[in-house]
Amino acid sequence: MEEFIAKHREEIAGVLSGFDRLIFQGTLRSISYPEGMMGYLWAKQVRLTEFGRHVLRVSERLKQACRAKAEALKRPMKYLASAGESKEEVARGIAAREKIEEGLVCV
Asked: What is the rounded distance in angstroms from the CA atom of residue 3 to the CA atom of residue 73?
């Protein structure tokens, strides 16, 4: 953890610690409205005509990072075909079945 904090110290506003798992849910509020997205694109110097390509590149980088972490930790990639399927229930089922008490369960 210290290595991660040292590497990303310029981007870290604070550090949370606790005795149990933390579950984060939310949105990227700064880009969840038009003016915020325009600010992001301006900061990244992305023209509106390049938006589609930019989003595909960023999405692919995110997917690759998630796949790499799952592979490194030997955890499964689980695709949920329906929005009605509860991610939490699926993850809890895998954790119970594989007796996982901490760390990454699946991606």
From this structure: 18
Structure tokens at 85: 């399927």
Specify if 29 maps to a domain: yes
Secondary structure (3-state) at 84:
coil
**Which residues are CB-neighbours of 5 under 8 A, at least 6 positions away?**
12, 15
Q: Is residue 66 part of a domain?
A: yes
Answer for the pair 69, 104: CB distance below 8 angstroms, yes or no. Answer: yes
What is the pTM assigned to this prediction? 0.61
Is 103 within the bounds of a domain?
no
Q: How far from the centroid of its chain's Cα atoms is residue 55's Cα?
A: 15
The string of pLDDT tens digits covering residues 62-103 is: 999 999 999 999 999 988 888 888 888 999 999 999 999 888
Q: Quote the CA–CA distance of 20 and 5 in Å, as a whole number.
A: 20
C-alpha 15/C-alpha 22 separation (Å) is: 12
State the pLDDT at residue 18.
58
Domain count across the chain: 1
Domain that holds residue 56: 2-97
